[in-house]
Write a structure and sequence with these properties.
Layout (H helix, E strand, L loop, with lengths): L6 H11 L3 H23 L3 H12 L2 H7 L8 H28 L1 H6 L1 H6 L7 H27 L4 H28 L3 H24 L13 H6 L11 H20 L25 H31 L9 H10 L2 H36 L3 H5 L5 H35 L3 H11 L2 H17 L6 H19 L3 H4 L18 H23 L5
Helix pairs in contact: 1-8, 2-5, 2-8, 4-10, 4-13, 5-8, 5-9, 5-10, 8-9, 9-10, 9-12, 13-15, 13-17, 14-15, 15-17, 15-19, 15-20, 17-18, 17-19, 17-22, 19-20, 19-22
Protein name: ABC transporter permease
Keywords: Membrane, Transmembrane, Transmembrane helix
Organism: Actinomadura harenae
């Protein structure tokens, strides 16, 4: 038996397990790309309007740090890729990290790989299978994104470069995740460290891009996300950058394979740190235990929300100058001038902040299912801890954590915008705009809690529910869905603040629905068997 024996069977098994997740991820990324191009055509139909957008973008450090630079102000494709360069790369990287950790470290931690390894499966087959699935997924993503951008009306060569850029970034971070999965002993730790690397590389890229002509712009070349941008789709199409990605991914993969043979099954290269013999006074309850388990995730999400708020505040004062077409000016006039378009921009991004808060909640509730299937819930529930108290920890973290993160987003964006505009009232306006987003995020959390309480395996469908709500909000008007269908999304009932009049009635209804869903989910959890 060779070290790669059974790779084909494991690959087919992995694809069978991911038969729903992979098409959904790829579909969303392709639709995001195509819809962005369509909207850019309408707002910037001529060279003059695109040149003005590029000039204002490249002269705004906050925008450059967030999205990167526009390298060809006359190209519709280059302007369309302003956001897509970064968003597509991050989406591909996140998908690759999830795939590699899921089929390597997570399978080891659950005991699934030990069971499979007892058959005719080689030592390196699981890693090879995970990398094969990851590589084929990114190749598929690159091809379909290139086709989607081409169908949307962009040149074929630039579309191919954009697809390769995203797929290349995905492959690089998949290789990084493969190394991290060998270093750590737990899937949660491997995922956390991999996403921390993604965040660090994004920050390095942002610092490099936002630097002045005499600053350290070379930092962008130290980041895989920066490599993706340096493909410069529709603005030169630098194909040779792919060689950098292939070389880095190749070396990193070799390191991952060398680490596989140096560790025991179920263990990591880095030893687990032993905890104290006695728990600290603050770690003697179920809720405090959950806080200890999720505090790293909460901290990471909080930092991301603060950075998002600062970026939104920095961009807000330049929104009116970024639109130069006659169609866009007519749109601004209908909204009430530049102040109107700025408020509309902030209101739209606050909705997206609410969606991110809901995503945090889905992840937090997902820990309930992970602890239960990992058989770590039974020892706790065998003590004097009731099911209510045990399940209350993730629910409180999901609800209160999401609310605090939204508030921090509003306060940070308001503070930055107030400093730039000289209007101190913006702090309160944007804090209020963030707070009204809380009930919609809580409804999503309530749906996930109900799914966990009724049928635990439906917990992961919380991501599908969130995606459906997002698609209804983004694609509903484009697809001309009936109003009742668009009203199914809780985000459709959130007041569009700042800048409009609003009523508290929809918020109260959503709070009541969220409370009912959470209560029903916890009640159902009390009445069912564990792991059933």
């Amino acid at each position: 038996m060779t070290a790669l024996a059974g790779t084909g069977a494991l690959t087919r098994l992995a694809l069978r397990r991911d038969r729903i997740m992979l098409p959904v991820w790829i579909y969303l990324i392709v639709i995001m790309a195509a819809s962005t191009v369509s909207s850019t055509k309408g707002l910037y139909p001529d060279v003059a309007s695109r040149a003005q957008l590029a000039s204002n973008t490249n002269s705004t450090p906050a925008l450059v740090a967030l999205y990167g630079r526009v390298y060809d102000p006359t190209s519709l494709g280059a302007v369309s890729m302003l956001k897509l360069n970064v968003l597509g790369a991050i989406a591909a990287a996140a998908l690759s990290i999830v795939l590699v950790v899921r089929h390597t470290r997570a399978d080891e931690e659950s005991g699934r790989q030990e069971l499979v390894g007892a058959t005719a499966v080689g030592r390196r087959a699981p890693l090879t299978s995970a990398l094969t699935v990851m590589l084929s997924t990114n190749l598929t993503l690159a091809v379909l994104c290139a086709l989607g951008l081409t169908i949307a009306g962009l040149p074929v060569a630039g579309s191919a470069a954009a697809g390769l850029a995203w797929g290349g970034v995905g492959v690089v971070f998949g290789a990084i995740a493969a190394v991290v999965a060998q270093l750590t002993a737990h899937a949660r730790t491997a995922t956390g460290y991999s996403f921390a690397a993604l965040g660090a590389f994004y920050l390095i890229r942002a610092l490099g891009d936002a630097s002045g002509s005499g600053g350290p712009r070379w930092l962008s070349w130290l980041s895989p996300i920066g490599w993706g941008q340096q493909f410069r789709p529709y603005a030169g199409n630098r194909w040779w950058v792919l060689l950098i990605m292939v070389a880095f991914a190749g070396v990193t993969t070799v390191v991952a394979y060398s680490l596989v043979s140096r560790r025991d099954l179920g263990a990591g290269i880095l030893p687990d740190r032993e905890g104290p013999a006695r728990a600290a006074p603050g770690l003697r309850g179920a809720v405090s235990l959950w806080w200890r388990l999720q505090r790293g995730s909460v901290l990471g999400w909080t930092i991301a929300f603060v950075v998002l708020g600062a970026a939104l505040g920095g961009i807000a004062s330049n929104v009116g100058n970024m639109v130069g077409s006659q169609q866009a000016h007519d749109f601004i006039t209908k909204l009430g001038g530049e102040k109107g378009i700025t408020d509309a921009f902030l209101a739209t991004d606050m909705v997206f902040a609410s969606i991110f808060a809901a995503a945090f909640g889905v992840q937090a509730i997902g820990r309930l299912r992970a602890e239960e299937t990992g058989q770590r819930a039974e020892p706790v529930l065998a003590t004097a801890v009731s099911r209510w108290r045990w399940a209350a920890g993730p629910v409180l973290i999901a609800l209160l954590g999401g609310a605090v993160m939204l508030l921090l987003t509003g306060l940070t964006s308001g503070a930055v915008y107030a400093m730039q505009s000289g209007d101190g009232a913006q702090l309160g306006r944007l804090a209020g705009a963030a707070l009204v987003q809380i009930p919609a995020a809580w409804v999503v959390v309530g749906v996930v809690v109900l799914g966990y309480g009724l049928v635990p395996r439906f917990t992961s469908l919380g991501w599908a529910v969130l995606v459906v709500f997002l698609l209804i909000g983004e694609m509903g008007p484009l697809l001309r869905l009936p109003q009742w269908a668009m009203n199914l999304s809780p985000f459709a009932h959130t007041p569009k603040l700042p800048g409009t009049t609003w009523s508290a009635t929809p918020l109260l209804w959503m709070l009541a629905i969220a409370a009912a869903l959470v209560g029903a989910g916890l009640w159902a959890f009390r009445r069912r068997d564990l792991t059933s």
